Amino acid sequence: MTDNSIADLINGYKRFYRKYNNEKYNEYREQAAHGQAPKAMVIACSDSRVHPSIVMQSGLGEVFQVCNVANIVPPYRPDKGTHHSTSSALEFAVGTLGVEHIVIMGHSGCGGIQSLIDGAPVALDGEYSFIKQWVEIIAQAKKKVANIPDKKERYHACELEGLKISLKNLASFPWIAERVGQGKLALHAWHFDIASGVILAYDEKTNTFSPLMEK
After folding, report:
1. For residue 183, what pLDDT is reported?
2. Which pLDDT does position 3 carry in this prediction?
């Protein structure tokens, strides 16, 4: 273990603190101290290369975000006695914050998707793999791409299929479906390519992904 990684974080915080306490942020600090009012929620992967606030250059207070392995949205399942991190974040974003857009943002080279296709890493306790159980939520995506011979193409196709499943799972939450039907909430599925920086957006009507913007 090296000290450089934590030192980099601390130095980054120092730079942030100096900027944050500049007069430029006076009004924001006063307002933010009493709450938040973002209009968008982003569900992204925990991957260190695809932080949504950096990719989309969003400012403080603009995006309510959740990061998990493979940017997965589980289906609506109100089971008592279990833990639902992503579902509880959705409930808060929709019910309390009243967000108007929910974006699921996948990405290229996703380790969670590779675990789904190739098999999750060996469980650390030798018994139970949290990763395996989590990515199995989108197991249908693996089945859909099983006949693609090239592994890289299969990974990519599975990333896209996983987004479709998560988008469908979003709509399984009754209070999300209700707000979508009322025109108060819009759902989006995007795929970020790390090498090129291109984001593909899913069109549910045509069942296709196309660039979010023209070059």
Report:
1. 98
2. 72
What's the sign of the alpha-carbon dihedral 194, 191, 117, 84?
Answer: positive
Asked if residue 7 lies in contact with residue 30, where contact means CB atoms within 8 angstroms, the answer is no
97-118 residue pLDDT tens: 999 999 999 999 999 999 999 9
Q: Which amino acid is at 121?
A: P
Range of lowest pLDDT (83-92, 98-107, 120-129, 154-163) = 120-129
Backbone dihedral angles phi then psi of residue 41, each to the nearest 5 degrees:
-120, 140
Q: List the structure tokens of 13.
A: 């915080």
The residues that bridge with 200 in the sheet, in sequence order, are 191, 211
From residue 51, alpha-carbon distances to 83, 107, 134, 153 in Å are 24, 11, 20, 24
Q: Is residue 202 within 8 Å of residue 211, measured between CB atoms?
A: no
H or E element in which residue 179 lies: helix 174-181
Nearest to 68 by CA among 161, 2, 162: 162
Instruction: Output the six-digit token pair for 207.
Output: 């069942």
Q: Is the Cβ–Cβ distance between 169 and 84 less than 8 Å?
A: no
Let me know: does 56 contact 63? Beta carbons within 8 Å: yes
Q: How many CB atoms lie within 10 A of CB 64?
A: 22
